[in-house]
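DATA SHEET
Item: assembly model
Revision: 1
Owner: S.N.
Input lines:
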Amino acid sequence: MALVFHKLVSVEEAIKLIEKETNGIGPLGVIEVPILESINKVLAEDVVAPIDYPPFDRSTVDGYAVRSIDIAGASEIEPKELEVIGKVEVGSHPSIEVKPGTAVQISTGAMVPRGADSIVMEEYVSRKDNKIKIYRMSSPGENISMSGSDIATGDVVIRKNTQITARELAVFAGLGLNKIKVYRPPKIIVYSTGVELEQPGNILPHGKIYDSNGYVITAMLRELGADVEFRGILPDNYDKMKDEISKSINEADILITTGSTSAGYGDMIYKVFNDVGAKIIVHGLKSRPGKPTAIAVLGKKILFGLPGFPLSAMMNLYNIVEPIVRKMMGKGESEKPKVKARIPFRLNAGRGFTELIPVQLVWNKDYLSAYPILSGSGSIAGISISDGYIVAQENREYFEENEEVDVYLFSSSIRPPDLTIIGSNCPGIEVVLNGAKIQNSRIINVGSLGGWNAIKRGDADLAGSHLLDEKTMNYNIHMPKLMGLEDKVYIYRGYSREVGILVKKNNPKNIKDVSDFLRDDIVIINRNKGSGTRVLLDKMLKENGINEPEKLIKGYTYEVKTHSAVATAILQGRADAGISLRAMAELFNLDFIPIGVEIYDFIVRKEKIENKFVNKFLETLKSEEFSKELEKKLPGYKTLKESGERIYP
Amino acid sequence: MALVFHKLVSVEEAIKLIEKETNGIGPLGVIEVPILESINKVLAEDVVAPIDYPPFDRSTVDGYAVRSIDIAGASEIEPKELEVIGKVEVGSHPSIEVKPGTAVQISTGAMVPRGADSIVMEEYVSRKDNKIKIYRMSSPGENISMSGSDIATGDVVIRKNTQITARELAVFAGLGLNKIKVYRPPKIIVYSTGVELEQPGNILPHGKIYDSNGYVITAMLRELGADVEFRGILPDNYDKMKDEISKSINEADILITTGSTSAGYGDMIYKVFNDVGAKIIVHGLKSRPGKPTAIAVLGKKILFGLPGFPLSAMMNLYNIVEPIVRKMMGKGESEKPKVKARIPFRLNAGRGFTELIPVQLVWNKDYLSAYPILSGSGSIAGISISDGYIVAQENREYFEENEEVDVYLFSSSIRPPDLTIIGSNCPGIEVVLNGAKIQNSRIINVGSLGGWNAIKRGDADLAGSHLLDEKTMNYNIHMPKLMGLEDKVYIYRGYSREVGILVKKNNPKNIKDVSDFLRDDIVIINRNKGSGTRVLLDKMLKENGINEPEKLIKGYTYEVKTHSAVATAILQGRADAGISLRAMAELFNLDFIPIGVEIYDFIVRKEKIENKFVNKFLETLKSEEFSKELEKKLPGYKTLKESGERIYP
C-alpha cells in the first residue's frame, strides 16, 4: 500500500464513520452472570418482580400481634388485657389465629398470624404468665410491613439498560434472583508497538524507553468494565506483527495498538491493518494531541492504531475508544464530568486543530483556576498530575486571561488539596512538606514570576521565589512593589542553596570558572531565560566582560528548564559544563565548582496567613529537625537565621 | 451473658470507640503488587524517579537534526543547504555526530545525535539525494524533548498515600517500575444470619425471605478495593455459628454479620462475639435506621453485627464500616460526595435519634428537590431508587417545606433523568415509556395530589392524576383552579382503567357488590386514604347508605398502598374482597366484579410542553401501537378518543 495523503477528520466525524462502517455500534449480546459479577455492567432486560416483597405481612418490631379493635382506647391509665395464646418465630409459617381477646407474641421479621391487624411494641406491654396488659392503642396496620408493599409481583423494578451498582443487588437478591442478564462486555486486546520500547522491570538499553501506554489503556478500559487483555509489545517485524494481529482480531471485538502510526515508522500499522483484511476508515485526526491515528473496521470489529506519545494515546482513548466501548456495553452516552474554571494567563491554542490541553485545578477563593500543563504529548508526568483537560476548537486562536472554560475531568470527584504551592521549582519544598506532615498538597511549577502572578490572582497558598534584585543584591523583597502587592503579601525567609558549575567527575577538562566557557573545547548546557540561574550566569559573564555570549560560547543557546536536566546533559556527555545546584552534583555524582549561594523564599497573601497548613509549612522552616533533614537530603542547602521569619514587610 | 441495658452511642462515638479499643486504625501493612493490580489501592511509599524521563534527548517530530546556527536566517526566499550524512532510527543509540554544514535525518522519538541542537520538521525541507534545502530557521532546542525535562532522576513523582488510578500507571511504567508498594487491603469476611433467610436462586418457603444484605455489603466493600469474601448464611445454631466465626476471625481483619441483633433473636450475635473472645464495645446505635448494631474488637480485628433490615445494614456500612475500611486502606478520610437540595414538603424527622432518610433527587429548574423515600428500613426498592440520604440530627423535630439540606450521594456522579413523572402510581406509565422509547426516566409515586404539588413546585415534567370531581363527575379538570395553577398547566388525556371488586377465583363467597362487605363472613382489604380507589369505595358505600364503615365492615381499616397489594391479600387468604383494577385480577388469577371505569390523565406545566421527552410521551398516547400494547399488557386498560389530546384549558 502506497502512502497517500489523506484528509484528517475530527473526533466526531471519526465516531460517525465507525458507526456507519460497522452498521451501528450497540450492545454485543446478552450473557447471564451471578449477581455479584454484574456490578458495573448493564442490565439487558427489565427486572419484573417474580414475587412480592416482602413476601408476606411481617412484623417490623418485637411485640404482640393483636386485633386493633380489642385494644381501642388502651392507655397508661386504662390498659387493655389480652391472653397470649402463642408465639410466632421468625422464619416460620404460623398456623395460630388471633381471636377476640387474644394476642400472639411476635419477633421482628416474623409473619403476622391470621386475625391480627396490628403489632404492639414490647415496650408498651407488661406481661405476667400468659396475660398481658397493653398501655397504648395501636392502629390497623401499625408495625406491619404488608406483603408486596415494597415491591409487588409483576412490578418492573429495575429497567433494562440500568447500570448496575451494589444497590441494585439488594433488589435482585431480595427477589430471589441469583443470576441476571447483562450485556456482554466487549473483549479488547491491547498491544504496544515500537522498536524503541522496553518492558518495565527490564534494564533500559540506551536509546530505548519504557512502554507505558499498554498499562494505562488496559487499566482505563477495565475501569469501564470491559474485558481487556494486554498482550505486551508487538514484535518489530512486519510478518510477525501481521500474524499476531490477524490471530487476535479473531478473538476480540476491539483491537488497540499504540505507536508506529507516524510517517517515520513507515506507516507500519496502516499496512498491517490493511493486510489483515480490515478497511481503513480514518488516516489521521484533526486534533492535537492525537493526530497520527489509524482506525479500521473488519465486519463489526474495530481496530485502533493510537499514537505512541502517552498523552496522545490517552486523549484518543478518552474521546473515541471510550464512547464506542460504552455503547457496546449498553452504557448510553458518555457524560464526562465537567467543571467551570478560569484560565490564569493568556494561552495560545487551537489554530486549525482541535486541541486538548491537560490542566491542573487550583481552588481560588471565588472560582477554580485551570493551570494548563504544557509539558507536551510525550509527557507522562503531565498525565498523572492533570485533573482533566480543556478543549480549544480549531477556529480558536487563544484563551484570554481569566476566560471561563469547561474542564472535562478524568475522575468524577475532585478534592481540593490542603496546600497549593505555585512558583519556582525547588526540591527543598518536598523536604518542608515532609517535615510539616502535609500529605495532600499540590505543587505547580511556573517559575518565580509565575508564582508572584498566582499570588496576585489568589490561586496560590504559597509561592516559591528566588528573584534577585541586581540593584540591591537582595532576593525577592523588591517584588511586592513591582507587582502592586505592597499591602497584600508577606514574604517569609526560606533557605539558601549553593550554586556552582557542574562538570564531569574529576573535572577532566580542568574548568575553573565561567571564563573557561569561552574555550574551543568546551560545550555548555544553559538554563532557560527567566530562570534565576540564567540571570546569575549572564551577570557573571558580563562581569567577566563577555558580551554576545550566544556567538562566543558553544551550547549557550541549548536551554533546559530544570537543575537536574543540566546535570543529566553533563553526565551523558552532551555538554561539558553548566550552572546548577550542589545538590544535583551530589545526586548525579558530578564535580562541583562553587560560585555562590542563592536564597529561596516563600510568599503568602495576608489573608491566608491564618490557614492551618500555611502555618504548619512556615513553622517547619524554623525547626531544628527540618534544618538537619534539609542539609542531609540536599547537600548545599542550608536554613538561615531568619528561616521561617517574616522578612517583608 | 445476661441481657443488660446498654447506652446507645452515636456513629461518631462508635468510630472513636473502635479507634480507642484497637489502639488506632491505620494501614495494615505494605505489599508489592504488579502495577496493573495497583488500581484503587494506595501508594505506600514516595515514588522517586530512578531514571530521567525521557531518558535521552529525543526528537518530537519527523525531520532533520541540525545545528541551529547553520540555518540561522533560513526562509522560503533564502533557504539554507545542508548535507545529509545519515539517519537515526527510533530505538537506536546513534554514533554519528552533526558537524557544521551537515544534517542527520531523524524520526519522532529517536535520540538526538551529538552536535545537533535543533530538529527541523520534514515539511520545511526539500531533499534531493543527500542534499537538503531548509526553508525556515529553527531555534536551539526546537522539537527536542530534553532528557529529564518531564521527570528528572531523584524527583518525588508520586507521593506516598496517593490513591492509584490508571493515570498514575503512566508514570510507574514510564519509569520502568513493573511493581509498586501499596497498603495491603483488609481481608473482610461477610455472613448473613437469620433463620428466616433463604439463598437467592432457591425456592422460597412460606415465612422466609431471600438474603440480600450479604450481596450488597460484599459488592460495596469490593468497590472500595477491600478483599472481601461472602461466606453465605450462617447456620442457625449457636455452636455452629460460634465455630464458624471463631475460625473466620482468625483469617480476617474485619468480620461482618447482618441480622440476629434485635432482642427477638435473643441477642445471638452478642453472645457469639462475646464467646469467641471479642470485647463488645457497642451495644446499639443512636441512629435510625441502624439501631440494633453490635461492634466488638479482638486485638486489632473488628467484628460488626449489623442489623438485618437492608436499609439499616447499608446505612451502617456507609457510615461506620466504610470509614474504618478506608483508613485501613490508607485512603484518608472518606469525603462523601454531597449536593444541596430542598425538601419538597414538611417532613417529621429526628426526635431523639439521628435519622438517615434516603431520598430521590429531582431536577427543578432552579435547584434540586430531594423527595424522601419513606418505605422503611425493610425496603429493598428504596435502596435501589435512592440517590443518597439526608441526615436529621437527634435534636431536630422536622424539616420545613423547601428547607435546604445536604444530600450525601451514594455515587459520586448523578445524572438527571430525561423525564421525571411524579404523582399517582399506575402500571400504564411503563407501557407509555416503552412505546416512547424513553429509557432514562424517573417515576416518583406520591399519589395524585402529590403529583399536583410537584407540578406546582416545578419538580415534575409530568404528573399522573386520577382525581374525580364528585360535583361534575369529571376527572382532573377541576384541579388547576383548586391548586391556583389555572394559567400555568395543560392537562392531557391519558387512558381509562377498569375498576372493580377482586375476589378469589370462582368467587367462593358469592360476592356481588359492595353491600356484601357488610356480611359477617367477609373480611375486606382497603386502600390508603387519599387514593382515588378509596374515594371511589367511600362514595359507593355512601350511595348504599352505609355510614361508619369502620365499625360495620371487617378489614375496612386494614389499608394498603397499591393495587397489587390488594390482590396479594386476597390471593393469600388474608382478605376476601377489595377494590382494585381488572389488570391486577388477571395478573394474580383472581375473579373480577366490574364497578366502573376511571380516567388517568397527565399534567404538564406550560413551559415544559416543548421538552423533547414530554412530547414523545404525549405523542405516544395517541399512537395505534400504544393502544394495542396497553390493552394487551394491562387487561381493562383502554385508550380513549382524546388520548394524548389537551383537555385543559
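QC remark: Residues 58-145 of chain B form a domain with the Molybdopterin biosynthesis moeA protein; domain 3 fold (CATH 2.170.190.11).
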